[in-house]
């Protein structure tokens, strides 16, 4: 938890330490921030309607520029993920099933990615299906192992 | 009420072997500006002009709404300046320096100073000569930060620091931004740091400003396009492409004003666009300097 | 508010250089003590020690207080404070001058007192003492000016060499002027026109050098 030493500034939802910007991640910082926020909403850590840090507070906590935070929030607002009100700060949008929706989006992105790479490898759709099934089995197998230990 | 912490226009300074020409630079209040450029580009001179330590030959400089160098005393009450070629008194302790600054500036925040001592791992009773280079840099920055000045002007604040110390400094610099009325201008060779915390970036080379704009916009304008050119295909010169490097059938086009249409333009010309990559600030730095110098040579 | 920043700077110099200063006053005092023991040999040795102490202070203060401050890159730190370059010059001149005056006055006053009360030397020697003691003072002004205006160690050293080599010459010349030496061994200090003229020249030089220093400093456009 990065609690600000000077709480004269806005009261906010504390940022958890898992929020990090990766230098080696080739994607722009604002995209990384957007993804991490969406993840938390998708997982239910950040609930619908919950207030989130102001852009300035975000910048301070993550050690990024205010402008990057602004951009991330702007895009998130455009996508309907968050809502910002003048003078009241920002909140997670209170759309029912938002978490689900974001999860769906993530899945779509990953599937498209997989399809694209499969195409580059010259794989046929059937092969890709097979591989997907195998991956699912491996995942279940590992889960089962963990439970028995 | 002025909206700018720093305004420079038409600023020139001429030395025997070097000159700053027509410098134009604006830092809105509440923002961080990163100043980058190769060694000898003029960063330090520009910063000294901002502090009134060097008088410009031409041009207007306003810092915190005060004309420089004429009103430098008034301005310096609200400016915190630290530069790479600044040293504290070796034979005195850090505590002495803290008391010295405290006796001059009313805004000294003693609890914050104590917190910084802890965060930076410094001991106030230690004499400056007993400190390592990194500790000295941190000590100098502590003296500047604890005053909570409206504007911080820092010349290479993280140069020569180990990664942990750099991280500590960046943390304190970004925390300054919690106050909308405070601004920072800093120069650095660590393009990663500049990329991470700057709101605006100014690029200077050989005494001239190459670029000065919003960081996100800037990063969006630069792209590297990896192209394949079949035999007999000539790559057209396109606006927004700063330069192309060709080797056999592969080419890399660097765009400094990228628009998606460029992809189409190349493909219409018969080239195949393999990939469009974004560039880190470091890559932009190198490309910008290389290509702009090439251009200069061609024009000369 | 402005005055107090300059005040803080002067205070700072006092703290930084007081130990060295006291050491040199001590050196001069020892010289006087030696002279007091009486006899021709001790007089020469003591007098030399006395003047050497004065010359050391005259030359050390500008070097340590001004040249080194720039060499050690402390100047940028000071100029980041809310002062103008003129105020910096003022604070430097006041503190350096102040420190020098303290030691100079102490030593000269001690010498005069010893002459008056203990007969360390004939009272007729007092004008000569003053004239000779003012030499390092002028030298000090020159050194200080060179350090401030010239900025580099080179200029300060040049001034140092020029002054040091001059003292001896001037001293040799002075002891040959009848108007000065005639009454030196007498019981009464004689302030004739020659004495007054020479004192006037020395004091005039001091004022001139100071004024010139201020002028040249204010014309600088690249302070660092």
Structure description:
- The complex is a heterotrimer of chains A (149), B (300) and C (224).
- Chain A has 149 residues and is mainly α.
- Chain A has helices at residues 29-43, 55-62, 66-78, 98-121, 125-148, and strands at 51-52, 82-85, 89-92.
- Chain A folds into two domains: 1-95, Winged helix-like DNA-binding domain superfamily/Winged helix DNA-binding domain (Arc Repressor Mutant, subunit A, Orthogonal Bundle), CATH 1.10.10; 98-148.
- Chain B is an alpha/beta fold and 300 residues long.
- In chain B, the strands form three sheets. A six-stranded mixed sheet of chain B has the order 6-7-8-3-9-10, with helices on both faces.
- The mean pLDDT of chain B is 92.
- Chain C has helices spanning 2-36, 40-71, 74-79, 85-118, 126-150, 153-174, 178-181, 193-218.
- Chain C has 224 residues and is mostly helical.
- The mean pLDDT of chain C is 86.
- Chains A and B meet through helix 2 and helix 3 of A and helix 6, helix 7 and helix 8 of B.
Question: Keywords for this structure?
Answer:
heterotrimer, A: 149 residues, mainly alpha, Arc Repressor Mutant, subunit A, 2 domains, 3-stranded antiparallel sheet, 5 helices, elongated, C: 224 residues, 8 helices, 82% helix, 0% strand
How would you summarize what this structure contains?
The complex is a heterotrimer of chains A (149), B (300) and C (224). Chain A has 149 residues and is mainly alpha-helical.
